[in-house]
């Protein structure tokens, strides 16, 4: 029997590695030996802190998590590995799976997606975040020639900016309080501005996408939106709440705030885009060496439990990669 090692959150901000026996491989399943993983700092910080509201326990389940909110729980959704056993079409291929942090695992074959030849395994761990960004761009309805602002230069915000800048004629500006993110934004073909510098675009933007998870960021988003523009809220606040400035220009300019969340494909695409197609598209979009700049650090899996909370707490973390082998 194969004994795998998995990261569990046993109580608030207390991770530990536990042994997980895999047992015989079931029919239709795949045995994957992990190569790389990634930490999704925003969501995993809320999970580690026990800040998932009870009302959202079902909707916030990771696809293949073990345990129940709040604790103990095995959580995560970004692993790239090698398929070692299972359907012949997958064996020996590099694959991506929405699986928690674990060095080997069994997963249903339909949840294991081959990584395209042009995407290295070390970068393919961005697939879950790229999938979120792709969904956000769909929800935003960005069109050629639009003036787009992304407020919040975290991992998802930068991926959205990267995608939006590839739409012909768009003018994309990334707004963040951290000036160190300027280089990344410009590498992706975007402008960069601090919230104060963004004021010269006030009221002139066609689409505003908010990813900063702060009240100040949402207020900036409202200030930048043009007449009857859409503000796409992609931040998740867990049990927190934010003050929204709905006075002033919000009503006079007929603005709208809509939520975007990766758990559902937007309705206008849902009939043709199952989750598998969306994930395959996200993986294909990672065939760009510039995206390697989104990795802010890497930890060997044996050291993950001791470093995990520090990684989550560091505001400089973009995508922190886990190396299994």
Automatic annotation (TrEMBL):
Superkingdom of the source species: Bacteria
Keywords annotated in UniProt: Metal-binding, Oxidoreductase, Zinc
Keyword Transcription regulation among record annotations: no
Domain Alanine dehydrogenase/pyridine nucleotide transhydrogenase NAD(H)-binding: residue ranges: 141-211
InterPro entries recorded: AlaDH/PNT_NAD(H)-bd (IPR007698), GroES-like_sf (IPR011032), NAD(P)-bd_dom_sf (IPR036291)
Signal peptide stretch: none
Protein name, as recorded: NADPH:quinone reductase-like Zn-dependent oxidoreductase
Organism: Rhizobium soli
Lineage, highest ranks first: Bacteria, Pseudomonadati, Pseudomonadota, Alphaproteobacteria, Hyphomicrobiales
